[in-house]
Amino acid sequence: MNQNDKMETMKETEFKKVVDFDPVIYDDDLYLNDCKSLKRRLLIAEKLIIIIAAFISMPLGFLLSYSLSSSVQEFLDYLSVGANVTLFVVYWILSFGFIILFMFAFKNYSIYKGVVKSFLLNLVFSIGTYLTLSSLSMNEGWIIASFVSSSIYCLIMLVTIITVNIVDDRNFKSLMIIGPKDDAEAFAKKYLEKKNKRSKIRYVFYEINGEIDERIYKKVVNVNEIVLLETLSVKNKQKFLLYFNSCLNKDVYLCSSYFDVISHSVSIKNVNGLLAVEQKPLVIDKVEGFVKRCFDIVCSLIILILTSPVFVIFPILIKLDSKGPVFYRQERYTKDLKTFKIFKFRSMYVDADPNKPAEVGDKRITKVGKFIRACRIDEIPQVLNVLKGDMSLVGPRAFMHGDVDHLLEIDPEYRYRFNVKAGITGLQQVKTNPGSNYKEKLRYDLYYIVNYSLFLDIQILFETVLTVLKKEMAAGVETDQRSLQEYLKDNDKEFNQHTGYIRILNHKRNFDKETGIIVPLMNPKYAKKTIDEMNKMISGKK
């Protein structure tokens, strides 16, 4: 070892002595900004805009209507009559109260619900206005102005709802994952594989023998999202849910268990003085089933008409590409575990093993098959199954015998997904990622059954169109047996492995030869500080 190498080793050793935490490499946690939930602040802003928009939409609507139909002065002259001024003010107050009552009676949990709520408000307000003012024999100008007022309000809210969702989606999110070591690292690896530029994992804390490292209370200030895994012990779930939700401005996500799913849509009841929740049956009743069946028939006929060229062109291409039938038929399970023959365009060679799931670069898939699988064209013939009544447009995925029989044996919960018909698409298909395990998919299937509505079906159908555009959803499953640490190393990501947790860095670091300090390259100014100054800064932060 030469003199320079000895000096560098001495400086690094000196650095490790003066810094009061795990050695090996300098941890820059103390130089991260505190992270808070932007989502909560955006929701507060949305509520303020609701109040402001409700207050100004009425006069703006009247002013705009009358300015377009006549002069502003004529409008002011019209209102100068005492009776009209009084009526206008009363109507203004009533409309303001109605809008506030309507908007705060329902919460927005998604952009879809926000848009529908605004549309319904406009519809209800417009009809109510027409009936009220018509009965008072008011002129058409008042009725038109009222319609314009409600339209202005709904336009403001639509822009607000869309903006809030876009801003929250683009906000940088730093994540903490908490769960048993193996489960937490597996979840973290799968999350990192998505390569989301706006969301990064900073910590993965392990539950070891029911305990979690106490340093979590200091590290949590550096994240704004916390994920509690389903397999976390009940004791720790309760403790951290109470702590994070009551003491910190963080977004906390509890990964669902079976009981979380069935208790999501419940009504609160008083049972002899005890607070109780009434469980919604895990079925779709006969009336809902009839409505769903009518919706399936109408939509399937429309799809068949729109896709009729597909049934002409692709059978020819499939025949030219490889020998064998155009359609692929296989026995699948549907409601009450009844079997049926599913229709699909054939995407594999005739001698391929149909019971083996497709993988990335699977050689069993034909050239035309790769295209129709990527575009989901191979699924279109299933509308014939929907018309026959074997399937529904939306529902749990129709799986093969081998998969279902095995899962029914190892998991009693799995049979409840067969309380409804299998679907061409479903909540599980549009929400889960390729390679998700059966339990993750099952949670979405059960959630769908408990919370079924025609609106949810329509929402899933729209999301399916967006999902089809994602090539990876049809590319097959790619098996990755690497550990989280191996994945991080292979992707050139730095991390600090501690006993109770792992700290993942999202930037490079460098060992400064002059000071002996390992510093983040994103903050090169720290490299110029001496060891004493750096240690003093750390102590001050503590």
Compact description:
By secondary structure, this protein is an alpha/beta fold. It is 52% helix and 13% strand. Strand 1 (173-180), helix 7 (181-193) and strand 2 (199-208) form a beta-alpha-beta unit.
| Rg (C-alpha, Å) | 30 Å
Runs in which pLDDT lies below 50 for 5 or more consecutive residues are 1-27, 519-532
Beta-strand content estimate: 5-15%
The mean pLDDT is 76
Number of strands: 15
- What profile does the largest beta sheet have? 7 strands, mixed
The helix count comes to 20
Give structural attributes.
single chain; globular; 542 residues; 20 helices; two-stranded antiparallel ribbon; seven-stranded mixed β-sheet
Chain-wise SSE layout:
Blueprint lengths: L2 H16 L19 H32 L2 H8 L2 H24 L5 H25 L4 H31 L2 E8 H13 L5 E10 L2 E2 L3 H4 L5 E4 L5 H14 L3 E4 L3 H5 L3 E6 L2 E6 L6 H21 L3 H12 L5 E7 L5 E7 L21 H8 L7 H7 L3 E3 L6 H10 L12 E3 L1 H5 L6 H13 L3 H15 L15 H7 L4 E3 L3 E4 L4 E3 L6 E3 L10 H11 L1
Parallel strand pairs: 1-2, 1-4, 4-5, 10-11
Antiparallel strand pairs: 2-3, 2-13, 6-7, 8-9, 12-13, 14-15
Helix pairs in contact: 2-4, 2-6, 4-5, 5-6, 11-14
What does this structure look like?
The chain has helices at 3-18, 38-69, 72-79, 82-105, 111-135, 140-170, 181-193, 216-219, 234-247, 258-262, 286-306, 310-321, 367-374, 382-388, 401-410, 427-431, 438-450, 454-468, 484-490, 531-541; strands at 173-180, 199-208, 211-212, 225-228, 251-254, 266-271, 274-279, 327-333, 339-345, 392-394, 423-425, 495-497, 501-504, 509-511, 518-520. It has 542 residues and is α/β, with parallel strands linked by helices. The relative contact order is 0.10. It contains 20 helices and 15 strands. The two termini are 38 Å apart. It is 52% helix and 13% strand. Among the domains are: 38-169, no CATH class; 286-474, no CATH class.
